[in-house]
Amino acid sequence: MADSDEMTINLVVLGRTQTGKSAAGNSLLGSSDFESHHSPSSVTTCCSLGRSCRISGIIRRNGCELALRVRVLDTPSYPHSGLSKEQVRDTVKSALAHHFGEEGLHLALLVLRADLPLYPDESDHVIQFIQ
Fold it and tell me: What sequence ranges are listed for the domain AIG1-type G (predicted)?
């Protein structure tokens, strides 16, 4: 639970294999919490949580300064090279409940590669999975 002088944003990172989900999570946190490298197959096989440091001086509420903390949940890709759709879904669902259960999820970031075309039905499959 966040302190009254602190705002926490809970964010989950989702997307296909090799889109840069873990790298995006690292960029958001300013860290290297998540393993990230080029590979022909999926790198991330389980969910992991990274937390930012307490960032001060960027948010004010009712005249009071609040600190911001960002919590990022990195997830396996969908589709995954080594896990079934159900395994990925159950892993993500369980991690969301475990890490964000009380406060809830605030943002979902869908990471797409800008150098590859998005096929018409591909976005539908990913969005259905997210829902």
Answer: 6-131
| DSSP H helical ranges for 1-131 | 21-29, 85-100, 120-130
> The domain that contains 75 carries what CATH number?
3.40.50.300
pTM of this prediction? 0.82
Q: Which residues pair with 61 in a beta bridge?
A: 64
| Overall number of domains in the chain | 1
Classify residue 86: in a domain, yes or no: yes
pLDDT higher than 60, residue 16: yes
DSSP reduced 3-state for 125? helix
Nearest to 100 by CA among 71, 75, 128: 71
Give the pLDDT confidence score for residue 9 in this predicted structure. 94
Of 122, 41, 123, 118, the C-alpha closest to 76 is 41
User: b/e string for 82-101 if b means 16 or more Cβ within 10 A?
Assistant: ebeeeebeebbeebbeebbe
Q: Is residue 1 part of a domain?
A: no
| Nearest alpha-carbon partner for 18 in 31, 34, 33, 36 | 36
Cα–Cα distance measured from residue 131 to residue 116, given in angstroms and rounded to the nearest whole number: 24
